[in-house]
Each structure stands twice: as C-alpha cells, then as structure tokens.
Amino acid sequence: TIKGFVFDLDGVITDSAEYHFLAWKALAKELDIMINREFNEQLKGVSRMDSLERILKYGAKDQLYNQQEKEALAAKKNEHYVSLIKDVTKKDLLPGVSEFLTELKAKDMKLALASASKNGPFLLEGLGIKELFDTIVDPAQLTHGKPDPEIFQKGASQLGLSVEECVGIEDAPAGIEAINAAGMFSVGIGSKDSLGAADYLISSTEELALDNILVAVAH
Ligand code: B16
Ligand code: MG
C-alpha cells in the first residue's frame, strides 16, 4: 500500500524554471554566451554546478575558467536567482497543487521533497507549504544527481518507508528515470514525447488526484 509521496519541486510544485532561466541567461550574457528557453530545457533537474558546466560547454568556454572561478560564477547566478524568488507566495503554486497536498495530508500520506535545488526549503517556506512536508532530502549530501535513483531512495527512507510504499512525481525525463530506477511508482507531469517512461502520465498539475493515482498503482 502507498503511504508516501516523494515530490520534485521545480515544474511540479512551482515554476521556478523561469527564474533559473532568467538568472542563467544574465550570467551567460556576461560571459558572452547566449542561451534561450529551448536550451534551458536541458538544465531542468540538473544541479547548479552541472548547469554552469553545460552552459560553458555550449559557449565553448569550458576551458577558460578554473574551479574557483566557476564556483564564483555559480554563486553569482544563485544570488540573482534568490533575489528573483524571494517574494514567491502561495499564488506561485502550480494549479491544483495546494488542493492535492491537502488531499494527501487528509489521507495521512507522508510527504518528502526530492529536489536538486539547494533553495528547496526556502521556496517551500515562501510558498507556505513547508509544514506539510515530513522531510526534505539535502541535495548537498548526494553522491549522484538525477537520473541516479539516490535522491528518491533517500526520500523514501527519510520517511521511514520502502520505495514500494511511495509514489514519485516528476516533470523532467531525468527525474522519471530516477524514480523508475529506484523501483518507485512514477507519475509524470508533461508530454508522452519526453515522459513516455512514466508509469502514469498526466499533462498538467491540475489533473493530480489521489484516487486516480492509487487506481493506476493497483493495475
Ligand atoms: P539550485 P528540481 C532543480 O530543481 C532545477 O530544475 C534546476 O534547474 C536547478 O539547476 C537545480 O534544481 C539546482 O538548483 O541552484 O537552486 O540549487 O527540478 O530538482 O526541483
Ligand atoms: Mg523538475
């Protein structure tokens, strides 16, 4: 039986991808690298340092900076990003998310956050839903990022549950891959094109409903 839900953040709970994009775009521009929204798709679910590496590679400038300089660049992007998300409120929850979380809590489901973002706790706070989460996986403690299953396995174990007792929810291909590799039931939010590997697929957060998910798990 399902006793817990392990959530991705960006793209599932709130659309922070847009703010990540604006902050990366500004930093890239300073480095004479132009990125667009299409390129930004590749950064979803990818850690801060790995995102920077991808941008530098894309601009053929990955050999120009040493580790210390890269860390300074990543810190600069993060400062900008944090300034963009500092005024986030309940209104920034994706449609249906507030109702879904309330439904899960009413049915005594345990909730974990499995986000690659080090700003996850800060965002949950601003969104007014931090108290609903029983645990947050610390991405700084991970050996491997998504698509490695580690973050979802930790989410389940931090809830005191087995992976079979949990449902994972994601909007990125690497995230669905990670949930599946963990042996957890995967719910994808997006299109069949990119999330065809999900055990259960919906096109938007508005369609999140506990009963439908439990029926899909039972099949
Ligand atoms: P930070 P998720 C991910 O969040 C974002 O999708 C990705 O674009 C970002 O680079 C990453 O978090 C790290 O974020 O710089 O705040 O630590 O989708 O795993 O919730
Ligand atoms: Mg995501």
UniProtKB/TrEMBL annotation:
Record's keyword terms, sorted = Carbohydrate metabolism, Cytoplasm, Isomerase, Magnesium, Metal-binding, Phosphoprotein
Active site per database record: D8 (nucleophile), D10 (proton donor/acceptor)
- Molecular function terms in GO for this entry? beta-phosphoglucomutase activity; magnesium ion binding; sugar-phosphatase activity
GO annotation, biological process: carbohydrate metabolic process
Which SUPFAM superfamilies does the record cross-reference, listed alphabetically?
HAD-like
* Residues bound to substrate: 8-10, 24, 43-48, 51, 77, 115-119, 146
What Gene Ontology cellular-component terms does the record carry?
A: cytoplasm
Q: Where does Mg(2+) bind?
A: D8, D10, E170, D171
Supply the enzyme class, top level.
isomerase
Which reactions appear under catalytic activity for this entry?
beta-D-glucose 1-phosphate = beta-D-glucose 6-phosphate
The site feature described as Important for catalytic activity and assists the phosphoryl transfer reaction to Asp8 by balancing charge and orienting the reacting groups is recorded at S115, K146
Q: What is its main location?
A: cytoplasm
Look up the EC number in the record and give it: 5.4.2.6
Name its co-factor(s).
Mg(2+)
Q: Cofactor comment in the record?
A: Binds 2 magnesium ions per subunit.
Q: Where in the cell is it found?
A: Cytoplasm
Report the family membership: Belongs to the HAD-like hydrolase superfamily. CbbY/CbbZ/Gph/YieH family.
Q: What is this protein called?
A: Beta-phosphoglucomutase
Query: Which species is this record about?
Result: Granulicatella balaenopterae
